[in-house]
Amino acid sequence: MKIPKIQLHWQILLGLLLGLLYGLFLTNYVYLIEWMGEVFLRALRMIIIPLILTSIITGITQIGSGKSLGKLGLKTLVYYVSTSMVAILTGLFLVNMIQPGKGADLGFTQKVEGLDIESGSFGRTLIEIIPTNIFEAFSDGKMLSVIFFALIFGFFITQTNDKHKTLLNDFFQAAFEVIMKITLLIIRFTPFGVFGIIAGNIARILNEQGSGMSALLELGSSLGLYMITVFLGLVIHAFFTLPVIQRFIGKVNPYKHFQAVSTPLITAFSTSSALATLPLTLEAVEHRDGVSNKISSFTLPLGATINMDGTALYECVAAMFIAQAYGLELGFAQQVIIVITALIASIGAAAVPMAGLFMIAIILSAIGLPLEGIGLIVAVDRILDMFRTATNVWSDTTGAVVIARSEGEQLKKGLRV
Prior knowledge:
0% strand, globular, 417 residues, 18 helices, Proton glutamate symport protein, mainly alpha
């Protein structure tokens, strides 16, 4: 009899539940399995630098190649950056208002080092983003310096001659594909990592607080508020911000457009992959919206790669939630760093399930938060991934119709307002 394969998100949930039970009832033996969480986090740290370096460089070379240097490319890039920034600021506003992690005594007494962004002036922080030694920045895990180097390296690849440009593009694209295969392998071991992390955290809570049930209730309450915060931000962005852009900038009927692209949106929700949905998105935007192939074939593949409004919002909220759970008050400079890093990390995020979770590690590293905080949010990541991917694709289609209208295209008769 063939044993049915359990989907990854159910495996993660099972790892979470087993970790809770193990931490509660086998507290004194948690050292036997805690190594799983440590190995998982070490693997995350191992992959962060090469992942962010190759993903950003390949993303920048895509933006800056060929016809994308023209007016159409500029419009597309401005749209993608603007909507992602609005999404991040929406999430930042909500997480500061709701504060899902604040006030919950979750037993995180670990000393957090590296939160020194505000020890000097904000201007000094920006200056120090430029590394004096890029290899030292790689070694020390200075994420902002790595991101800065990747941005300028990717840009200047586009300025080289065709022979060298092709060589470097092929090299970094191949390297990115290899890194993604390693990343997907690490993702497969996420349930074991969650098992070890959760069991260790629960054991520490019991040792420090003595009351497991009250601590678990606080954790569940905070996690529920966190999910509500992310979901509310996505709802605001998807059902208010983007329709306003469609209606008043693109002169498109939001309801009619939603009907036209409902199939790719449902597919994006179920698969959590913008790239897997791309053929359906292209078909819907071209044949049901009436966008020309010239516009759709450029904006949509690029959008599926770098336009991640929902992911950017989620990354910002998740980083702030983890900081609140550790009892940390992030000031203006640190929140600006989160916004900037979330924007760049969302561009670098691969359009595959759970890729945004790995980008959270980049943001946590950038502001000096422990990666162990990922254990708080990984259990609910899959359900949020479905909503944020649908939001990503909804934004891609919005960009296609808005840019098409800006280029003078008429679209289908029922879409115009």
